[in-house]
Amino acid sequence: MFRPMEGVRVLEVAQFTFVPAAGAVLADWGADVIKIEHAERGDAQRGLSRVLGYAGGSEGSSFFPIMEGPNRGKRSVGLALEKPGARKVFEELVRNSDVFLTNFLPGARAKLRIDVDDIRAINPDIIYVRGSGFGQRGPEAGKGGYDSTAFWARAGSAAGVTPAGADRMTRMPAGAYGDSMGGLTIAGGIAAALYARSTTGEPSVVDVSLLGLGAWATQFSVNLALMNGGPLPAQTPPRHGSATNPLIGAYRTADGRWLELSMLQPGRYWPEFVRLAGRPELAEDERFGTTEQLMANAAAAADLVAELIAGRPLDEWTEILERGAGQWSVVQNAWEVGQDVSLRANGHIAAIVDAEGRDRELVTNPVQFDETPVPLTRAPQFAEHTDDVLRELGLTDEELIALKIEGAIT
What we know:
Layout: E1 9-13, H1 20-28, E2 32-37, E3 50-51, E4 54-55, H2 65-71, E5 75-78, H3 84-95, E6 99-102, H4 106-112, H5 116-122, E7 127-132, H6 147-153, H7 157-161, H8 177-200, E8 205-209, H9 210-217, H10 219-228, E9 248-252, E10 258-262, H11 266-276, H12 291-296, H13 298-310, H14 314-321, E11 328-330, H15 334-338, H16 341-345, E12 349-353, E13 359-363, H17 386-392, H18 397-406
Parallel strand pairs: 1-2, 1-6, 2-5, 6-7, 7-8
Antiparallel strand pairs: 3-4, 9-10, 10-11, 12-13
């Protein structure tokens, strides 16, 4: 299969999901991604036993989805960058890499001598990539951030989905929500930088922040506010439909499930919908006979749509709506997403074998080349590949033992 990053080596000094997810995408695309983990503590995310109130793994297994997703396909090296003996090994890894990827804060980068100038002094041609909470300039350049703070809360998503007057803020719909999108964004930036280096010979410094990513995600609303010169006025959407279209929004079925309608041309789809729903006479109702009349009486029409949808269970509505041309979707939970017929038909749920030999499945990144699904391999165990990678650099067994005694490697 076509693996566009074949032959590219990425050296990753990063933790949690935001930046490691970029390494996972590059590994999906064929890159050799070497993940540097602290020789004693490893990636701090390995210690998260519970995520959003759920157990992070299953008893008796090393398979933790929160580690597998952003780290599949990599090789792990346990390296204590603060130890003198580790520096020689680290510098050799830098010399043999095309991309250096990190999310360490400026103070930590300076202390460990892994900032841009440090890395470029070893390998002038390397592409240097930083993921951050709030960017590399300004008063918060040294401030850490997570997707719940910098992406979700700070950049407008939380306010956008929390109803006016609510007594609690709406939380992110999934763990590492912004982080996962950020990883794909960083991977795209790296691909562009590699292309530029191949055509101009010049390596880039690539920066992506969670705050910038979040503002990009909410740009429609932010751009409107900038145009208007102030905050957008608070709006209370109608319970059903939109102000001018009854065939937009979420409706509850008889069995308590939800359907999301998105038929953006109400006049076009109204006759078809009411016919499929068994109420063809509503197409001729004087309140809804033309597009203008339907839009003017959208609230009344939406109440009728709610009543109709509430009268049948989801399975019936799925069969009914599949006969029409309008756009709609079932509101699916996480399990249903994992079983989605189109995701599986397109290879976006991939099989892997975990470290204990058990069959598992993971969501792939959404990019495919030549209509070919990406084959995945599991994430590495902590420091699993230290000896292999260092032997590739030419270290002898005696040198490996000496480094282990020093505590420089695991």
